[in-house]
Hints:
By secondary structure, the protein is of the alpha/beta class. A hairpin with a 2-residue loop joins strand 15 (597-598) and strand 16 (601-605).
Amino acid sequence: xxxxxxxxxxxxxxxxxxxxxxxxxxxxxxxxxxxxxxxxxxxxxxxxxxxxxxxxxxxxxxxxxxxxxxxxxxxxxxxxxxxxxxxxxxxxxxxxxxxxxxxxxxxxxxxxxxxxxxxxxxxxxxxxxxxxxxxxxxxxxxxxxxxxxxxxxxxxxxxxxxxxxxxxxxxxxxxxxxxxxxxxxxxxxxxxxxxxxxxxxxxxxxxxxxxxxxxxxxxxxxxxxxxxxxxxxxxxxxxxxxxxxxxxxxxxxxxxxxxxxxxxxxxxxxxxxxxxxxxxxxxxxxxxxxxxxxxxxxxxxxxxxxxxxxxxxxxxxxxxxxxxxxxxxxxxxxxxxxxxxxxxxxxxxxxxxxxxxxxxxxxxxxxxxxxxxxxxxxxxxxxxxxxxxxxxxxxxxxxxxxxxxxxxxxxxxxxxxxxxxxxxxxxxxxxxxxxxxxxxxxxxxxxxxxxxxxxxxxxxxxxxxxxxxxxxxxxxxxxxxxxxxxxxxxxxxxxxxxxxxxxxxxxxxxxxxxxxxxxxxxxxxxxxxxxxxxxxxxxxxxxxxxxxxxxxxxxxxxxxxxxxxxxxxxxxxxxxxxxxxxxxxxxxxxxxxxxxxxxxxxxxxxxxxxxxxxxxxxxxxxxxxxxxxxxxxxxxxxxxxxxxxxxxxxxxxxxxxxxxxxxxxxxxxxxxxxxxxxxxxxxxxxxxxxxxxxxxxxxxxxxxxxxxxxxxxxxxxxxxxxxxxxxxxxxxxxxxxxxxxxxxxxxxxxxxxxxxxxxxxxxxxxxxxxxxxxxxxxxxxxxxxxxxxxxxxxxxxxxxxxxxxxxxxxxxxxxxxxxxxxxxxxxxxxxxxxxxxxxxxxxxxxxxxxxxxxxxxxxxxxxxxxxxxxxxxxxxxxxxxxxxxxxxxxxxxxxxxxxxxxxxxxxxxxxxxxxxxxxxxxxxxxxx
Length: 928
C-alpha cells in the first residue's frame, strides 16, 4: 500500500509550491467528482439510459449490467448497450440532459433547452456550480499567468468554464475526442485552457464506451506527457479509470522518466477506508509502485479542499475573495478567446528580450502582438480598418492574407486581432483557432447576436471546406457581425482550392498578398531597433543614418541574395547579422540544443533533429514531412510534435505546417550546415538517414512529389561530394532494385571525381533494365552512363549510350524535351570529341543532325555545347540537314551511332541493348 497523505498535507504542499520562485505552473485533472452533485453521477445517467428503452429491453440491459460490480464499468457497458441499439444522437441527448440538470431553466421547456444548447453557456448566472468549481474558477482567474496551467477534464459539462468566467477570467474550451494534438493550444496560454478529453456536452461527439476510452491516441498521449513534464498536476474528482490520462501517466513511468513528474493525486475516500478496501481508488492499484513524485492524498472533498486552498494562497491572487465582475459574452469550443484582460496579462512577457528573439525568427505569439518594441505592420492597420468599416454597415466579411513563408503573415493577423480586442469603442469578441478542432458551423452561426466577432484562422488551407460551408451558411441565414480573418501560405492556398473559390459570392471579401516591406514598415522597424539598441540593429550599425538603414532593409526585403528569395525574415537576418555574426548566433543555438535530449530516445538530441531539418532545406528541398522526420529520429509522429517540433519552434529554429518542416529561413539552414562542417559533425550520417527514410516511404507506397525530392537529395548536393555520395548510397541501400537511385549514385561518384566507380556502378546496374518497375528510368540511366564514359575519354561509348537514351522504344518510357536535351548534350560532346581527332564522315553527319535537333528543341539549355559542335561541323565542311527533313536526320543519327558502336573503346557487356535506327520520337519533338 502506498503512503496516503491528508488534506492538510495537500494544502501545505500546494501553498508552499505556488509561492516558490521556481514553482511549476499548476495544471488540474478533473472528473465527475468535481461537478457532482449538480451534474448527475453514474447511477442517474444509467437510469436515464434505461428509460430510453421499452420494458423488455430494460430487462435485457439489467441482465447485462448484473455481470459487473464496478460503477465505472457499469456506466461504460450501459453506453455500449445504448450505442448498439440506438443512433449516436440518442447518447448525445442523454449527455445533454444530464448536463442541463446543472442549468436553472426558469420554467423553460426542456426540449427548447436541448435545441438551444449552443447559446445557454452565455447565461453564466443560470448555472448551478458547486463550491469547489467556483473556487477553482477564482484560482484560475486570480493566479499569475506564470503559475496557471491548463485544466484537463473527462467531464462533458461546462461548469469549469462557467466558474472561470464568473470570476472574471477567460476560459478557452478545447475539445479532443480524436487523436489530434493540443500542443499548439498550449504554446502561449491566454486565459485558462479547459481541455475536454472525452468530449463536450454540445458541439462535439462524446466518448463513453470502453472501446472509445481505451483506444490508442498517441498524439494526445504525447501532448499530455509534455504537459506533465512541465507542470505540477493536481488530480481531483477523477476516479482513475482506464483511459487516455491513466495510460499517459503509466507510459511516462514505464520510460523511467519519473523525475519529470510532479503529480498530486486526490482521492475522495478516507484513509481508513482505503487501507481496508483499496479497490475504492483504482489509481492506487494502477500506480501502486509509483515513485516518490506521485503523491496520494486521501479524504479530499473538492468542495472543501479547493476553497481552503484559495484562502491559503489569497495573497498570490490578483483580486480579493469578493466576487469579481463576471466575464460575459459567447465562447466557441475549440477556439481561444482573446480579450483585453488576457492581452494585458501577456504584457509582462512583452519585453525587449522577447522582441529580439522574435526578430531572430521565433514563431510569433500573442505577447508579440502587444509588444510595444515590435512595430505594427501597415497592412495590419489597413485590415483592421477594413473590418471595422464592414462592421459599421452590419456586414459579415472575409479577409484572406496569403504570401510566402517568412513574410510575417501570422504576425500581421495577430496584430489585427489584438488591436480589435483592445479597442475601447467597439464591441468585438475575438476568437483564434490554434489547434485542429474547428468545431461546427452551427456553433459559429449560433453566437449571440449581441456582439460582433473576429475569427482568426491561421493555416486556413487545412480548414477550407469548413470555411466554405461557413460563408455559405452566413449567406443563407443573412447573419451579420461575423468577420473571418484567414491566413495561409500562397502555394498551400492555391493547392487546396481556396485561391480559386468564389468567396465573394457568399460574403464581402478582401484579399491581401504579403510580399516584402513597405517603406512605412521599414521605417518603423528601424526606429524600433534603434530604440532597442546596438544588439537589435546588429550589422546595420555600420550605416550612419536612419534613412540609410531603412534603404538597406528595403533592399534586402525584395532582393535575391544570400538568403534566397527576398522575404521579411531573410531581411531581418541579413541586415542585422553579418556572416560571422549569424554563424556565431547559430553556433550558440546548436551548442544549447546539443545538451537537450529527446525524452523517448536518450541517444538523440534536439541538435540532431535540427540538423536533419536543416540539411535538405539548405539544398533547396523544403519537402521534409513529419513521417520522414519521425523515422529519421526513431520516434512516433505524435512524439515528434511534443518533443521536437514544439521546442525547436520555441527556439526560433524551425517552422512547421502545411505538412512541411523547415528551418525558419534558408539562410539559417545553410549556416547550420556550415557550422556543422566546422565542428566536425557527421552530416553524412544525417543525410543517409533522411534519404533512407524517404526512400522507404516510397517503397511502402506512400508516394508524393515532396518525398521524391528527399529521396534524390544527392542530385542537389554539388559542394560536398562525400555528402552527395552518402545520400545516394543510402537510397540504393533502401531500394536496391530502383534503377534511378543507381543513376543518382553514378552522378554522385562523378561529382566525387571517381568516374571509374561511376562506370562500374552503371555496368552492375544492367540487370535492373528488365524490371518493369524501372520503365521511364532507362533514358536517364543511359544518359548518365554516357556522361561518365565521356569523362573517361571513351567518346564512342558515350555516343552509343546517348543514342540509347534518344531512340524510340516504349520500354524506355516517354521521351520529353527535358530528357532529350540532356541526352543530346551528351551526344554533341561525344561526336564533337571524336570529330576533333578523327573527322569521319559518319560521325560528322551524326554531329550535324544532333546539332539541328538540339537547336530546334532547346529550352534554356546552355548553348555552348551546341556552338562548339556547330563549329566542328563547319570546319570540316559538312552540311547540316534541314530541320524539316526528318528522314535525313534519323538516317544520319543511325549511321553515326552504328559507326560509334563499331569503334567503342572497350566492348559493352552483352546485356547492353543495341541502338535502334529509329528516332521518330526525337524528331517529332521539333514540331511540338
